[in-house]
Every structure is written in structure tokens, then in C-alpha cells.
TrEMBL record:
Segment forming the signal sequence: none
Family classification: Belongs to the glycosyl hydrolase 63 family.
Name recorded for this polypeptide: Mannosylglycerate hydrolase MGH1-like glycoside hydrolase domain-containing protein
Gene3D superfamilies: 1.50.10.10
Amino acid sequence: MSAGSARSGASRVQTRSGYDDRAATVDGALWRQAVDTLEANWEVDHTVPSRTLYPHQWSWDSAFIAIGLARVRPDRAWRELRSLFAAQWSDGRVPHIVFNPRLRPGDYFPGPEMWASTDAPGASELATSGIIQPPVHALAAERLWRLTGTSEAAAELARLYPRLVAQQRYLARRRDVGGGGLVCLVHPWESGLDNSPAWDAPLDRVPADAAVMRTYRRHDTRFVADSHRPTDLDYARYLALVSSYRERGYADDDLAGRHPFLVECPLFNALTAAAEHALAAIAPVVGADPGPHRARARALTAAIVDRLYEPASGTFRPRDLRTGTLVAPRTVLGLGPLILPELPAEQVRAVLAEACSPRFGLAERMSRPLPSHDRTAPDFEPLRYWRGPSWINTGWLVWRGLREHDRPALAAGLRDSMLDLVGRSGCHEYFHPETGAGLGSPAFSWTAALTLDLLQTP
């Protein structure tokens, strides 16, 4: 199946009971595959990313999933967000995993016994992780409102808005470790791009005994080849960072003095600013003032340009706060600021040049998918998680940025490429950046959800 057929098909779709079948101008088979994936992964009050690798609820996954569910089951989309924010901590953080208490211990690693979150001051009563993920949730809520606009949606928005504000307040007040107005990450998992080459140098100084892995049983390599996943040494360092943060009750005071991994990420911060733009759009609906959100978005955008843009290379890069330097690898993280509507013209041109270069291959007619890492780099790995493969969620974010900055031909080329991937290989977690073969989990929820959004957006 080609992306062209996904654009031009005209069959109505007979979906499972309860799903909207208004997709009269999309490819029926592709639409049905995406809908059935979401239906199969629904779990009482949320959607699991996959039934094998990820059996709990993940934070930014739920936001992307809600965007897709808005097209077919708005009721479930709102429930997805309600379920996630029910686990919000008192300081406003939204944990990156909410654990399902119905699953047996050991069904996922590292599980709730490793995080011990309920012992931390101000934590949720639910078992969660102690770290965060990119704040895509306000974008999802705004999209839900725009697609429905009902009185029920307005009531949902009114309930969710203060929680979204608290999430942003946490990021602004507790995570500005560098003092420059940006959010600092304390773990690679917080970026969402878990083992991106961008984190190699900051991780190198994290002390870790690889023997620690012999006391744990990894869950992921039961389902996916070792060569596709982070190494045991990577995991040992990940666990060392979890332990460092957990032992201090996940407190954010004095991070600069004690935590070994401190990084400002361009994609995470761009999504934080984009969330403020979304909240500015939501605010009038709930009777709030949009002005502070607009001001915060402008300040974040300026800080991203000031602290993370490198004029010599014309790229955005993460900043390692331990060394005060920008990291060397050129990854898809550097394309993230394109989503910002107020990104200055100079930086828009620079991001587009980077995206259209041989490193990433964006074009009006793309011969290969958008990779997660510079495909010309010597450490490009087409099979290993986030070190080369193509992902629908990062492609979708770049596509949003192209539309934001009025690049319709490039946006159409990227959209066609993503739909072609799913049409040929299914709703996989990620894809080979050269061949387009499906990799990771074969029934992945955010791939299905964002496919629905792509199909319904001209």
C-alpha cells in the first residue's frame, strides 16, 4: 500500500462498536488497522503503548494517543488524559509511567519496586516512576477541544486546565537548573528519546557497575533482539540515575550540586513552549487569562535560541550543564524547535536546511524515512532504538512544525513518507530508516493514533 492510496481511498470504514466511522476520504484498510490497534491496546481507562514491551501507561504516549483517539473516540481521549493526570504529584510533575496494579511484579523492568515512588514526599498514591516526559498533553487537550467543541469537552477542559498549568509550573520552577529559563532533564528517559547518541557524552561520567544488571531481568529483550535495544551498560547507568534521584526522594533542590546527568534538550523545551501556546488557546474557554501563557512561550522560545542554537553549525543541540557545552551529535532533537510559531526566521531557515540535508533527507518526495539520528554520522545505527530508526511521533512533530511555518510541500512529502511506512509495514513502534521495515513492537499505539491524525489532516 502506498501513501498515495492512503490519501485517495474513498471507502467508508466499518469499525468496532463505539468508534466513529466518518473517515470517508481515507484508505479504509489503513484506517481500520490503526483503529483496531488502539482498540486492542485499550486497558480499562487508558491505552498501553503495546501489549508486549510496554504494558503500563506512559505519559507522552498517552498525549499522542489522545490526539488520535480524538478522531474516533473523543470520550476515550478525554479519559486517557484524566487517567494520566490522576497520578500527578502534588508538586505538579506528571510521572513518565503509571503502573498498572493488576500486573504481576516482574512483568516490566524497571517496575514499581525499583522506583518506590509512594515513599517520596508529595508523590501520587498510585505507583509511578519519579521522572517526567515531554509535556505534549496541552497540545492534545487543545486538539481535542478544536475537534469536538461540545459542552462536555468544555467541562473536560475546565477540569484539566489547572492540572496542565501545574505541570508547566513544575517545569518552570523546579527544573530550571541552569538558570537560563529552560527545563533541565535528569535522565535520558525524560527526553522520550531514551538512548539517543545525544546522551552518550553526558552518560559517560555516570558511575555504573555493569554487574548490577545481573541482579535484574530485562523485559525488553524477551521480545526484541538485543542488537535493537540499549546495551546492559546503558541500563546500568540508567539505573544509577534512578537510584541517585530516588535516594533523595525525587527532590529537585540542589540538583546542580549532586546529580550527575543534567541536560537542556531542544525538543523537550520546544514542546514546553508549545504547551504554553496551547494553554493560551485553552485559557479563554475556561475563563482564564491567556497573557501569561503567551509571555512564557515567548520567553522559552528566546531562551531556546539563546542557549541551544549554535550559529556555526546552524543547528540546535542539547546543552550539557555539567560541562556548559553543546553536545556534538546531530539528531532529530535539533529539528524540534520548528514547532514553535515564534521561532525567528533565521532559525527556521537553519532548521529547514538541516532537515533537508543528507543527514535527514526531508524532501517534497522522500526516498527514505526521516531518521532519528544523522544518517551520515559514523555512529548511525539503523536498527538500534533511537540511534537511527524512524519514528512516527518525531516525524509528526516535525510535520506540525512545517505546517506551522507554511511549508506545505515539505509537510506533504513527510506526511506521505510516514503513511507509506505504516501502509507497507504496519503500526510498528519504529521503522528501518533505509528500507522502511517495521521494528520494535508490531502493534504500537502512538503509531496508530498519529496515523489517524495524519489521515484526517489534508
